[in-house]
Design brief:
Elements (H helix, E strand, L loop, with lengths): L28 H12 L4 H4 L15 H4 L12 H36 L3 H28 L7 H12 L3 H26 L3 H30 L3 H23 L8 H6 L4 H13 L13 H12 L8 H6 L9 H11 L5
This protein binds fe (ii) ion (2 copies).
Length: 348
């Protein structure tokens, strides 16, 4: 179908220095291993997933944390069919945000191919670009079985714009592989563990294995790359990480996370003002997101330790985290477990 509607096309400027590497030498053997593992573990969503399996949009799609708002008193007033509609649309909206993040990851991976200085790092990020293409493919396809693709949430979009527009590839990598992919990976693991939908569970198990490799890349490559930066650019990357973290925290703790959500409410025949008033009350009382026992705590387990380990919480920026009421978690146990999954069992 041809369309003249260009609203779905948007450009952003991504300043980029392209780096050639004429030596073709391998210095980071762990990166080479990760590349070989990525080649070996490619999968085809047409072959590995059964797309004919039934999907019930009114069924249990997301995990407890993400359906938590449905336990609010507000929802007791709704009819069964309204609740079912809301459930489907809320799920599609949430997964749409992951889809937009995947498109961002695809573009960052493409950008990193040109920007990273090491030859084996270029090979590895090329494999990541293919992984991200597959993730965009499968989320797009799955969401359309539930409902439709919803527009991007404004805070997430602001964060993606920051990642696209920073001139430092190290900042792009922190923003994408540590912060956004940390957020996405936590969501994939937690939704995958609790969803009642077989297709989504299988899809997420494949995606999670890819993402574990992407997180491992951050661990192998980023700390050294940041340590090697000159002082001024390194400060810029530290500031970038603080600002990105502030955005993520605001999205999770305040009403900012519900910006752009009114379209789901309207489509579900729920008055946005009523809903937002109830939600505002909940946030004022201290929004507590309930997650299942044993689930991954994304912020404490993945994002913050990743930022600390990359060497980005210097004495200069630490007060900024404290002022924003962000605890600087540095225990890397969860992160390392996932990275082992990304790196492990390379049998050749
Ligand atoms: Fe991805
Ligand atoms: Fe990824």
């Amino acid at each position: 179908m041809e369309s003249n509607d260009q609203d779905h096309i948007e450009s952003m400027n991504s300043p980029l220095e392209l780096i050639w590497n004429w030596a073709y030498e391998i210095e980071h053997s762990r990166l080479e291993d990760l590349y070989r593992k990525a080649k070996r573990d490619q999968w085809d969503a047409d072959v590995q997933l059964d797309w004919s399996a039934p999907v019930d949009p009114a069924g249990k799609i997301l995990d407890r944390e993400r359906t938590g708002i449905m336990r609010m008193k507000f929802f007791e007033r709704l009819s069964k069919s309204q609740l079912e509609t809301f459930n489907a649309k809320n799920s599609a909206w949430t997964l749409s945000q992951l889809l937009h993040g995947e498109q961002g990851a695809l573009m960052v991976a493409g950008t990193l191919i040109a920007a990273v200085p090491d030859f084996e790092a270029k090979l590895y990020v090329a494999s990541q670009a293919m992984d991200e293409a597959r993730h965009v493919e499968v989320f797009r396809r799955y969401i359309r079985k539930l409902d439709k693709i919803y527009p991007i949430q404004p805070v997430l979009k602001a964060l993606l714009k920051d990642i696209m527009e920073t001139p430092y590839w190290q900042a792009k990598t922190v923003g994408m592989q540590v912060i956004l992919e940390g957020l996405a990976l936590g969501t994939f693991i937690n939704v995958g563990a609790e969803t009642g939908c077989k297709l989504l569970r299988e899809l997420l198990s494949y995606v999670t294995k890819d993402e574990a490799r992407h997180v491992a890349f951050g661990s192998i490559y980023l700390g050294t790359a940041i340590a090697e930066m000159e002082e001024d650019p390194r400060r810029a990357v530290e500031d970038f990480a603080l600002e990105a973290t502030r955005k993520i925290v605001a999205m999770r703790r305040s009403m900012q996370g519900f910006e752009g959500f009114d379209v789901v409410l309207i489509d579900s025949n729920i008055d946005p003002d009523d809903f937002l008033a109830a939600m505002r009350q909940k946030v004022a009382d201290g929004l507590k997101l309930q997650s299942a026992p044993g689930s991954v705590h994304t912020f404490r387990g993945l994002i913050m330790p990743g930022i600390v380990r990359a060497g980005l919480v210097s004495d200069r920026v630490r007060p900024g985290y404290e002022e924003a009421n962000i605890r600087v978690f540095s225990d890397t146990a969860v992160l390392e477990r996932l990275e082992d999954l990304g790196e492990s069992a390379f049998a050749g």
